[in-house]
Structures are given as C-alpha cells and as structure tokens.
Fold this sequence. Notes:
Two copies of one chain form a homodimer.
Chain A: E1 2-6, H1 11-22, E2 27-31, H2 44-49, H3 69-76, E3 79-81, E4 84-90, E5 95-100, E6 106-110, E7 113-116, E8 120-122, E9 135-137, H4 141-152, E10 158-162, H5 166-177, E11 181-186, H6 198-210, E12 214-217, E13 221-227, E14 229-235, E15 239-241, E16 244-247, E17 251-253, H7 256-260, E18 284-286, E19 293-294, E20 301-302, H8 307-321, E21 335-339, E22 342-348, H9 351-356, E23 361-369, E24 380-388, E25 394-401, H10 406-417, H11 422-427, H12 442-454, E26 460-461, H13 463-472, E27 476-479, H14 483-489, E28 497-499, H15 502-505, E29 517-521, H16 526-537, E30 542-546
Parallel strand pairs in A: 1-2, 1-7, 2-3, 7-18, 9-16, 10-11, 10-16, 11-12, 26-30, 27-28, 27-29, 29-30
Antiparallel strand pairs in A: 4-5, 5-6, 8-17, 13-14, 14-15, 19-20, 21-22, 22-25, 23-24, 24-25
Helix pairs in contact in A: 1-8
Amino acid sequence: MNIVIxxxxxxxxxxxxxxxxxxxxxxxxxxxxxxxxxxxxxxxxYYVAGDVQDINQLMTTPAGALRNQAFFKNVKDIDVxxxxxxxxxxxxxKEVTVKDxxxxxxxxxxxxxxxxxxxxxxxxxxxxxxxxxxVHQLWxxxxxxxxxxxxxxxxxxxxxxxxxxxxxxxMAEALKLWEVNVTVxxxxxxxxxxxxxxxxxxxxxxxARQQGLTILTGEKVxxxxxxxxxxxxxxxxxxxxxxxxxxxxGVRPNVELAKSAGLAIGPTGAIAVNExxxxxxxxxxxxxxxxxxxxxxxxxxxxxxxGSTANKHGRIIGDNLGGGDEKFRGVLGTVVVKVMDMNVxxxxxxxxxxxxxxxxxxxxxxxxxDRPHYMPGAKIITVKLIVEAKSGRILGAQAIGEGEVxxxxxxxxxxxxxxxxxxxxxxxxxxxxxxxxxxxxxxxVAALAVLNKLAGRLKGISSLTAKGKIDAGxxxxxxxxxxxxxxxxxxxxxxxxxxxxxxxxxxxxAELNKDDExxxxxxxxxxxxxxxLILEGEEFKNxxxxxxxxxxxxxxxxx
Amino acid sequence: MNIVIxxxxxxxxxxxxxxxxxxxxxxxxxxxxxxxxxxxxxxxxYYVAGDVQDINQLMTTPAGALRNQAFFKNVKDIDVxxxxxxxxxxxxxKEVTVKDxxxxxxxxxxxxxxxxxxxxxxxxxxxxxxxxxxVHQLWxxxxxxxxxxxxxxxxxxxxxxxxxxxxxxxMAEALKLWEVNVTVxxxxxxxxxxxxxxxxxxxxxxxARQQGLTILTGEKVxxxxxxxxxxxxxxxxxxxxxxxxxxxxGVRPNVELAKSAGLAIGPTGAIAVNExxxxxxxxxxxxxxxxxxxxxxxxxxxxxxxGSTANKHGRIIGDNLGGGDEKFRGVLGTVVVKVMDMNVxxxxxxxxxxxxxxxxxxxxxxxxxDRPHYMPGAKIITVKLIVEAKSGRILGAQAIGEGEVxxxxxxxxxxxxxxxxxxxxxxxxxxxxxxxxxxxxxxxVAALAVLNKLAGRLKGISSLTAKGKIDAGxxxxxxxxxxxxxxxxxxxxxxxxxxxxxxxxxxxxAELNKDDExxxxxxxxxxxxxxxLILEGEEFKNxxxxxxxxxxxxxxxxx
Lengths: 559, 559
C-alpha cells in the first residue's frame, strides 16, 4: 500500500501517524512545500508574545524531541519530503507530480491512496502599499520570527492590526505585552463578527479598550503608506501611524491543486468531502483547513479552519486509509480566545445565525461569578444561551469574562453534540467545589433563565434593546444596586433611572408607577429579576429585565 | 397556600425562594434550629485556610448583602424562624410542632405543603477521648471559627485528620497553609475510598506526601488521649502527637423527624423521595442532604450529600410547591476536590463500582498536558475512562493532576447524562486555543485509548497490575524515555528494566526478545504505546503498555 500525503503540518502528519499505527507495512510519504513540518501554528502568537521562548518548542514533542524528518522516519517510519511542492495530480495514473524546491527537479510519486491536506492561506487584500516592509501576516513561523525579532530590537512603537478576529486579537495581546501601542481596525461593525453576537462583542470591545487597545469597528482600510517600510495605515476615516501592520482578515482554503485535479469544490469554496473525508475521488481523502465541514446543528456547509478539527480529520483519514470506516460528525464552530485577561468563547449557532436560518428561538444572557464570590480569584462571566423555543433544543452559547469560560462552552458543546435540551443543562451533575464553581453552575443558571423566559416568568431584553429604549426616552430604568455599587461600577447614562436598592423595593413601591414601562437591572441582573418579580407580584403591568446587567453593558457608564 | 420548610441552609431556602417566585401570594415560613441561615457550608475549609477572611462572607450575596432574616423578609417576603427546632410533624392535622430554643416555648405551625430539608450530621464515632477539647468536626460555622481562632493564636502544631475524604483533604490543605504538621489517618486502604479507584488514589497519596502531608491508610483510630485537651491520637499501629483533631469520616442523613412522622426511609437510610422529590406523604417534599438520590447510570439508590444537588433539589421543590411537575433526574456522584495544587475529580461509576455492578467494561488511563506543552503553565493531568464494552456507553471518569481537571470531568458528566458513548467523546467540537487545551483534548485522547483497546490495538495494564508483574519478576519493562527524563522523573524500582529511547527502538530491536512478555512505558505512556506498536509490527508476541506511565506511578521511584 502506497500512501502519499500532501501537506505536513496538522491534518497531514496526523493522518500519516495514524495510518502507520493501523498498517505497519504501508509505505507512507508526506510532501511539504515548506522547510518546517508539524509545527503548532496556533502557538505563533504566544511565541511573538514571548510566552514561548524558542520557536522550536512549537515543533517538539512534550518530551522534547524535535518533530523533524528524522523523528518521523525513526519513530514512525514515515518519509517526509520538505521543500517539495506537489504541482499536479494525475488521478487516472494515480500519480502526484512533485517538485524539489531547492534543486528544481520534478518527479512523480505513485499512490494507491492520496491525502490532500494543503491547508489554508491568509487573505491578502490588494491594497496599495501592502508590499511595504513590516506589513505581516501571522500564518507561518517566518512571519512570527520576523515580528518577534523586531520587537526584541525595540523596532515597533505603533502597531495596527487589520481584522478583529482570533489571530488579530491574540496578536493584539502579544504586542501589548511588548508595550507597543495597538490599534485594531475591523471593517464590520463589531469585534469577532464571525462568531459573536453584537451585544457580546460590544462588551468585549469595551473591555479591550479599558485594557488600552484602540478598537475601531466599521472602518475600512484603504491603503498603507511609507517609504520602504510602512509608516501609516489610511482608513476611510483617519490616518493611523504604524511601524508594524498585522493582516488578519481571515484565510481561504488552499484548493488550487484539488481544483486542477478536477475534484469537487463545495459551496464554501473549500474541498467537498463526505463523512469519511473522501473527496469526489474514492482514492483521495482531504482534511484540515482546505476542506469544508458540516455544521452539526444546521447541516450547513461551513468553512471553519481550526487546529482541533484538522487533528480530528487526520485521525479519521488515517484510520480509513487502513481500511476503516470512521466518520467525521461535523463541527459546531466552537471557538475560544483569550483577549488580555478576558476569555471569549462560543459554540453552535449565534443568535444572528439562528435568525438567519429561521429558527424560532429564545435567548437568555446571565452574569455571575465563576465560583462562589467569597473565594479568592472569583471573577464574573456572562453566559448567553440560544435555544429552540418549541423543542428546548440547545442551539448555541457564548460566554465572556475574566473567569473560567472554556469549561462552560465545552459543557454546552457536549450537550449540543448529543442533542441536549435546555432542561438537560440544568440537570447535569457537574463537578462542584468552591475552587471551581458555585453550587448552581453558570451554565445551569443560564438554562434556568431560558426556562423562566419560556414559562413567561422572565421578560428579558438585551443591552442593545435597552439602549434603544433609553434613546427613545419612554421607559423607566430601575437600578436596584446599592449606592456603593453604583459608584464603583458606574451608572447608566440615562435621564430616567430610578435608584431603589432591592432590599428597599417592597417598602418604596409608591415611588414607581404601575403603568410605566419599567426595565429593572443590577450588576448582573439577578436582583433585577427579583425586582421584576416583586413588581409583577404587585400588579405592575410592563416590567422587563436588562439581561447581563451593568456588568455586560457595552456602552460607557457615568462614574 | 401555607408552606412550611424545615431547614434553612441550602435546599430549604432555595425551595423557599423559588416557591416565592412562582407564587407571590403564598405564605412561606422557614424553620432553622441554628442561628445562622443560608451559609455556604462548602466554603468552611477556605475560611479556616484564610482564603476567606470573614465568615460572614459565606452568608452574603455577591453584592454584599447579608442573607439574614431581614434580607429574606424584605427581598423575598419569606419568614425565617432561627433557633427554632421542629420537634414533630402531625401529618393528619398537617401541623409542625416547633420549639423556640431561646425561650423554650412550643407552638404549632399549620401547613398545606411541608418541606423537610434537615440536612446531614457528621458521623461521630464512639471512641474514647472524643470529648476532649480541640477534637472538632468541620460541619458548622462554629467549628470553623474555633479552629481558625486557634490557628490565629498559633495554638496548633500537630493536626491529625481522621478520614481521607473531601472535607478531610480540604482541611489538610487549609491547615498546611498555617504551617501545621498534618497527618491524615484513613481506615480504608486508600485515599478517597468513596470515589477513586485504587491506582488513582495511590497517585494522589504520593503527591500529597510529596507536598508534606503524612498520609496513613489502612489504619484505624482507637482513641484520643490528653488531659482536658487532646494530646495524641492512638491508632492500631502507632501513637500520633496531636493538639488538633478534625473528624471527617463522613456524614449521615438527619432523618429522625421524618422517621418519627412515619415517612418512608430508603435503603441508604436517607429519606425516600420520588422524582418530584415528594416523600411517601403527597403533601411533604424533602430535599438536600437528608434524602437519597438515584444514580443516573446504575439506577441504584445512593446517599451523596452535595451542595450542588441540594440547590437543585431546592429549585425543583420550589417549582413543585407552586404546582409544577419538575423532576429530578438523579446524580452521577460527581465530585471535584483540590488537594494542595492537585485537582482530583470523578463522575459516574468507578472501575470498582462497574465491577461490583457486573458491567462488562473496558478502561483506559492516559496522561497528557492540559494545554500544549509549550504554553506557560501547562501541567500534566491523567484521565481514566470506564466504558461499557459492548455498547461503548460511558460509565465514568476520573481525572487528577495539577492541570485543569474540572472541565474534563464536566464534559464527561454531560456526555453521560445524555447517554453518550466513547465515540462521542472524540467527536465533540470542544473549544480549542493554546491557553486552554491541546488540539486533541485530554478527554478525546482518553476516548481514543479506549477505542484502541476495544479494537485490540492497545493492550494496556494498570500500574497496580504492573507492580504485580515487577514483583513476580517474569516481565521485561521497556522504558522508552530519554536518559535525561529518567534522571529527572525517576526510574522504576525493578531489576528487569530495559532502557531504549523511542527514537532508537527500531534500530535496537535485537536487544529485545520476541517471546518475552514486555511492558512498555514512558512518562505518560504515549511513547510507550508507540513502542508497543513498533514491537507488534515486528512480530513481538506479548507487548503491553503501562497506562499513565511513570507520571501516574503510585509507588516510589529511584532517582
């Protein structure tokens, strides 16, 4: 059995390693156009930050062995050809043409089974000045090395990051650690437009600004100027001084080879594969960032390049190369990203997705400490759930905050994968002890909020809806926090706020009008909810709760 | 509607609060025999440790309001009678007799619906000397205050903790922070006998000893000696000097009131309730630490008092008091506990449980970093999965290590709750980014190990089985670590270890005998597994892998 694999980073080498485990006798050849193989590309921002000292650490095993050609040969009996470009696939002859990039020599590699793992390439917009020095993408170790070397020499003072996505914000944090001024320019109206709902993105942006990043959304870069090296970024709104530019506006699948071989390309522009990760040719598999995936909830084809998915693909392809019938179930578009000390995560559908796909859904957003508030290190996180109204099926979740977020996203991702409902999220016997969480975990609290909304007990509105009501000027906002909290956490900028701490509400009802539209809130709106229940118990007609409270308020507060 | 609730800590007050939300008009009275209500009992060890400065923090809301009688009256319109003991229930008359413990007065409270949330009481063995001063249980805030006050005055030098369970080890950590010498005495042969398998418990004990705790297992306390105050603990093996003793050998449900009212008591000795948390009387609910629960997997009745379960009970009872039909699904016996810097968690069945219940199961135990090894703060955790062999259904998991453990336990708990299989654990699109985890999360790696075992590709043995083979002296142990690692991590105490680093194995096969029984391992046994595959590919007949590697080896190593 002759196996050829094109691409030697994540999916390709994982497939090779697994194929070897399944079939000790196969001949396995991996072709990689670059010099380096099997590197942890997701670690590059942390190398730039200085968290990772040596870039070779991204290419070693946990035991310290460099995952180079000799390693793959000695340990796994896999031949890796580096600096070797696959230039064509002859499907009839079952041959791949490869070119040695150092000697220029071409030759043909015969295959019984072929794997395409050509990855993705960063999008490079055709903007004037993009060829200037110090305009970098952050995709290959060489980019990271160049940026880090410049930082070590104190070369950069003002960095502009184009694109407020994952790599963009990871790089923003990395550069900030080097005390560089960082401006992030995003064409869309919000941060993380690919995976966060607008009000959550607003909270993240507010936090990022508080941490000293300049976040410019709804702003389009027009050109880069400078004499040899970049000196400024010109947008449709201003000119920003910049001696370093990071382009992180996304990636596209690298499908040229597959396309020219006549393999089917899917609606997303990535290679189409079936559940077994077979392409339209039964002897050619494809996996990693060059293929499209199926969304587990919606069934849509989506392009979500992710290191974790690439590794799963590799494992499944490796098994199937050895005669297995392993299937890839699909993705939830789960992401998590660290933005300074804030954790930001999402799984499944956003509310925007749910709306676009026509779901009848309900959402709830709740804040709360990630462990009992009395424990040292307890931090607030905000969890938003999106649930199908009729069935209760969980559609998605987002969570942000300085507290533990990834665990909550993973609980929901697990529940969604198994077809769970919002009731299930309350039922789960999660691990409880004060260093880890509160007796009712944040996910369960969010589930209860959804259940209360479905039962008609909680009428919640988002911060954005609340802002609209403030602007319209017809609504009374009821702030039930204590005066100390208001001072510390800031006040809503709104002429019609009434301040009545929750403990006094029952005795001060006369100060409110039963026919007014009232929006109650507190720091996280748990007391806001209590307040609404008290008012409803007293026959107030139109009481709502501002979900997430002042803690998730994306706009400026008065102090 | 007249609702009376007996017990004002977790389940009772949660039920009261939820009942109020559902029914603004009900009359709700809570009866509590102690002075304090609604305190976070699970936080007591952290108060003793000094992590929590003021014990009142355990009784405040996150916003700082003390959850006292006035709070429940003003905010929730709930009457709480403290220092009031319920002495009898007249089910025919639907009345509870209560006694004011300060005045001694008795009176009767009529009820339409009654809730029993009388909690549990710590087991106090009838040992000589147990009445000596400084012999404490750690169940009530008063115990914690006494211990902390003694610590602050530098009163304690040698503490002995009886029982290596949750509270015992939390207290061991707390006392160690005060630089007290701590000895933990456990009657069973292992730490955490209620929820860890023996080899995992052995790893925890090894770690605890390395951190300076003295852990004595299989040792029975016979008496306490001293003149007024405790001076020593006498076991069946030795006399241990002690000026502080913490009794933490478990708790039993407080069922006297329920029993004398003729309510059904279950096989565990706790109050029997149905899914709605109704007792054998249709007007009396019970919840929290005084009731028994149903195990979601086995269907067995079990007694697992846990703050998280009590809060869930309270919420469900509150809903049902208002006419709801909420059901409690049951528990998985999930636990998590911090032992110094090690996190220890379990959900579902242990291997011991699975054996006792007659399941046909397979287990796998794997070690690995909790995030990419190149990230700062990456730590190794060990995950053990127990899976039903035929169906692949997940039965349970245990995880330990200085890295992130609770998340992995919660992923498995979620999957079990939804009937997930070991395949599902690989499929889940968990949140991936280097600050949080590796591209293939530890849970997925453990799932793959199980799948490899089910497919006959991995023949794993536990550290205990390996120890047996070392003692029998007929097996070759193959250590494929590098010499540097062996020096750093220590060597197996075994005369028949062969040292061949993995990268040299293919070229040094002649040093091994194809007919020998060989057990391969490394630090975490990932390379041990690679080594086994190489040997099997070369037609070695009898190769096994020591699961978890030297990292999870519970016995001493040679350095």
